[in-house]
Amino acid sequence: MASDLPGFFAATEMPSAGWWQALWPDPAAVLNAVGLTSGTEAIDLCSGDGWFTPSIANAARHVVAIDIDRNVLNAARHRLHQNGISNCDFVTGDAYELGNLAPRPADFVFMANAFHGVPDRPRLARAVREVLKPNGCFAIVNWHQRPREETTVLGEPRGPRSQLRLSPKQTVEAVEAGGLLLARIVELPPYHYGAVFTRSSS
Ligand SMILES: C[S@@+](CC[C@H](N)C(=O)[O-])C[C@H]1O[C@@H](n2cnc3c(N)ncnc32)[C@H](O)[C@@H]1O
Questions:
Q1: pLDDT block averages, 10 residues each, the chain of length 202
Q2: CA angle, 67 as apex, 172 and 197 as ends, to 5°?
Q3: Whose CA is nearest to atom 27 of ligand 1?
Q4: Quick check: helix, strand or coil at residue 113?
């Protein structure tokens, strides 16, 4: 099982496809809301099987999809190939080691549905800071801190258990402790928010 891999973040297994697709029918709109702009060097951190990666690749100059689980990365590779997308590289590794995994500085690091499971969040933020260009952005997409039984998709409660969910305030405190600055919080209905950070205040 992927969750047996050393360093695997808690409760971040890739969900089954049917309900993920129902929850995220428009990945490009999510990326637009958290500030992905065209022509950027991007990283999809904890990319999973690449639900968001094609939309990042369509906007970015280049994207690197990084995940600790080589099987989901192979699925991502297949998805992008099927879509005729070639401006994406795939790197297997632990997100804490981002500084050693990213081939070049990034304008935009995207991390969806994984930050809740990171044990040392300031450490992760420091790793992201290390690879960001001076005005680069780190966009986190998190489940809202609502009871799991309330966040139903296709008739069933979904997402990480209630105790693992982070409020925007908890997310901001953890990331700012790692040296990044909050730019804005955006709502991503029905159950998520985006927290966007920058390397500098300008
Ligand atoms: C819930 S999935 C979300 C995937 C994708 N971001 C999305 O929203 O569709 C979380 C992903 O994080 C990956 N992951 C877990 N621990 C990791 C780590 N330490 N470093 C890199 N990836 C990790 C898992 O393998 C999984 O594919």
A1: 91 91 97 97 98 98 98 98 97 98 97 98 98 97 98 97 98 98 98 95 54
A2: 20
A3: 48
A4: coil
Place of tokens 């973040």: 9
Q: For helices 168-177 and 121-131, what crossing angle results, to 10°?
A: 60
> Does residue 118 contact residue 55 with C-beta atoms inside 8 Å?
no
Q: Measuring from each residue's beta carbon to the nearest atom of ligand 1, which residues come in under 6 Å?
A: 2, 7-9, 12, 14, 46-48, 51-52, 67-69, 72, 94-95, 112-114
Strands (E), 34-180: 41-45, 62-67, 88-92, 106-112, 132-143, 152-153, 156-157
DSSP 150-189: G-EETTEE-SS-GGG---HHHHHHHHHHTT-EEEEEEEET
User: What's the 133 CA to ligand 1 centre distance in angstroms?
Assistant: 23
Strand, helix or coil for residue 31: helix
Q: Which pTM does this prediction carry?
A: 0.98
**Which residue, judged by its Cα, is nearest atom 26 of ligand 1?**
48
User: How far does residue 142's CA lie from ligand 1's centre (Å)?
Assistant: 12
Most ligand 1 atoms within 8 A of CB, residue of 44, 46, 115 to mutate: 46
* Dihedral angle of Cα 140, 142, 145, 151, to the nearest 10 degrees: 160
